[in-house]
Design a protein that fits this description.
alpha/beta, Rossmann fold, 3 domains, seven-stranded mixed sheet
Length: 443
């Protein structure tokens, strides 16, 4: 696989990394600078685990802003992995924003400060929670740590943000006008917890982008990565596992699930990951319904196939069961993979590219109406007690998502069965076999 998938060409954008111990306000600062909520914020320490990246458009250029998990001295559960991931971001950082709490300095702060000594020229100390003027004199105490750039801020209230931005620009001087992002196929990986979403992201990006653990709910924020396959750039989002709403009792998980669902809007194609061992659930069906409703491409991905028994006809039996339980995804391709072993990944990406081409396909109106005439000649629309239903004209309204407008004599009461017939003909005759599509009726 490594000779097929390669890491995307490193982004030329400067990298500004926000670091610090848990609960000092790193994610709040990240969201403040970006201008909208990307990272999940919550009073619970250690909410951010994987680094969260977003493009930050500044007046004189764009940078890649990165929020990291908190640095801890005492480790439990995933703390070691989170801390190591945070430290790893330092080597590639062009600017490091160390967030400290104006109300206290802890041993974790002091330990992290020593770790940052080799990077001192790139470090800005952002003393956070200076929410009112009374706390401003306390900022001077933080000059004692020996860093030349110290700024008092309140990420919650926006105080000192312009001063912090000025310091960032001093470290990263004029780097040119805002750069346009290279067009890419956008993928999102969705599914229940522990189906292997983070393992698949790491496999595709050829990098440890997401923390992989057997602990359900490890991924909280949406983690982004990019890679190249057959000279095409892909951007991929790893999302939190989506459980049934009644089982989501933790506030952090609630926001994680909502971010995962929102990722559907940002993607062209969804990889709906299904654990081949544990099978399907009602929650998988609900996710599928959301994808179809938004007109996104979808590939059903049966992961952990390497752990199956390998008995005769097993693959066909599993596929038949999936098709039976997912009638709303009868058009969607199904691919068997092992994200851990790298099996089936090339087939998965080839399938995704075919789906993407169909999503972006446009049919000439003349060709479309010649086909419509053939379809209606072959099978006339039915009639009711008011007379015959008639189709007049059809045109493609949008691509990605694909939708058509069908002009008819009487939109109200138009037979849904005949509408499904036309959808089936569009798929079979005009090359929309593997994507959702919609037909809007007009008078």
């Amino acid at each position: 696989m490594h000779d097929i998938i390669s890491k995307a060409t490193p982004d030329s954008l400067p990298r500004v990394v926000i670091v610090g111990r848990p609960n000092v306000g790193k994610s709040t600062l990240f969201n403040r600078l970006i201008g909208h909520r990307v990272a999940i914020t919550d009073p619970t320490p250690g909410v951010t685990r994987d680094p969260v990246e977003a493009r930050w458009e500044m007046d004189n250029g764009a940078v890649m802003l990165i929020d990291t998990g908190g640095y801890k001295l005492e480790h439990q559960d995933l703390d070691t992995l989170v801390t190591l991931r945070s430290l790893r971001t330092l080597d590639d950082a062009d600017c490091i924003v160390l967030v400290l709490d104006v109300t206290e300095i802890t041993p974790e702060d002091e330990s992290f400060i020593e770790r940052l000594r080799p990077f001192a020229e790139r470090v800005i100390v952002a003393v956070n929670k200076v929410d009112h003027e009374i706390r401003e004199p306390l900022v001077y105490n933080y000059h004692s740590f020996g860093f030349s750039r110290v700024v008092g801020i309140s990420s919650a209230h926006g105080r000192g943000i312009s001063e912090l931005t000025d310091e960032i620009i001093k470290i990263i001087p004029e780097w040119g006008r805002v750069q346009e992002e290279e067009p890419a196929i956008r993928l999102a990986i969705l599914g229940k917890p522990n189906t292997g979403k983070s393992t698949l992201l790491n496999r595709l990006c050829n990098d440890d982008r997401s923390i992989v653990s057997d602990i359900p709910g490890t991924t909280r924020d949406v983690v982004e990565g990019s890679f190249q396959y057959k000279h095409t750039l892909y951007k991929v989002l790893d999302t939190a596992g989506i459980r049934r709403r009644v089982k989501v009792t933790d506030q952090v998980e609630y926001y994680s699930v909502n971010r995962a669902i929102a990722a559907i809007e940002r993607a062209d194609i969804i990889f709906l990951l299904i654990d081949a061992l544990s099978g399907l659930s009602d929650q998988d069906k609900k996710i599928a319904g959301l994808i179809v409703k938004r007109g996104r491409g979808v590939v059903m991905v049966l992961n952990k196939w390497d752990l199956m028994s390998g008995i005769a006809n097993e693959a066909q039996a599993v596929e038949d069961r999936v098709r039976f339980l997912f009638p709303m995804l009868d058009f969607a391709p199904l691919v068997r993979i092992s994200a851990r072993e790298g099996e089936g990944i090339d087939n998965l990406l080839n399938t995704a590219h075919q789906v993407w081409k169909q999503l972006n396909r446009r049919v000439d109106t003349g060709e479309l109406n010649r086909k419509l005439a053939e379809w209606t000649d072959h099978y006339d629309p039915p009639r009711d007690n008011r007379g015959q239903f008639r189709t007049k004209y059809m045109t493609q309204v949008t691509s990605n998502p694909v939708s058509f407008a069908l002009f008819v004599n009487r939109p109200k009461g138009f037979p849904s069965g005949y509408l499904q017939y036309l959808k089936n003909r569009l798929r079979k005759d005009l090359g929309f076999t593997a994507i959702p599509l919609d037909i809007h009726l007009k008078g």
